[in-house]
Amino acid sequence: MHIPSWLPSIRALGWDLDGTLYPPSQTLTKLIQKRQYQAVSEKMRWSLQRTRSEYEKRYLNLGSNTKTISSFGIDGISFFTSAWDTIDLSAFIHRDERMVHMFDSLSSRRHFLISNSNRLDQIQKKLLLIGLQAEIFEVIVPTEELGEVKPDPAPFLFALEKLRLPPEQTLFIGDRVSTDVMGASAVGMRTCRIGETTPSADICIPSVYDIRLIFSDR
Hints:
This protein is α/β, with parallel strands linked by helices. It has helices spanning about 25-45, 50-60, 65-70, 75-85, 95-105, 120-130, 145, 155-165, 175-185, 210-215, and strands at about 10-15, 110-115, 140, 170-175, 190-195, 205. It folds into two domains: about 5-20 and about 95-215, HAD superfamily/HAD-like (Rossmann fold), CATH 3.40.50.1000; about 25-90, no CATH class. Helices cover about 45% and strands about 10% of the residues.
């Protein structure tokens, strides 16, 4: 694995939550997606077929489900925070010993977390299901509280202000190019994409657990 020359300057690791600290579930994705389409269909009085087509077009342009559903006149942040309340998260998010061990090996590092459309209590619940304590993260930014979602700069700038670090000394780690990579890059953060390689990110790794190969203290 190529280790870039700037890596030693990184003082804080930033994390996305959904799809990064726990793996995406097709069942969960389809469940949320079905609710999105139904809400838009009812709002616009469109057929589900037309709704899916129009939704996908707007998503390609906006790069965020929260922004996309908001573009139809539905409060996207409220929609998703309400949706999480109605789902049995324990059916989709499970304790991950590898993730627990990974953070143990990164215990000397500073960590922060930025999550779209999750309240703080929802973030804490998800972390506990994974097996992580919220206290691991020096700063947690629920975009629900800011009223701005990734890839907007506000959540990233808020985290930097709390950390009192310049952006080039942080690395943001996430699975989505449109929200995680593009949003963090726009404010000057270094970026790591989990999954397929993209030229948009500074580093790409196949699995979130590969962070240990780069930053592990032991």
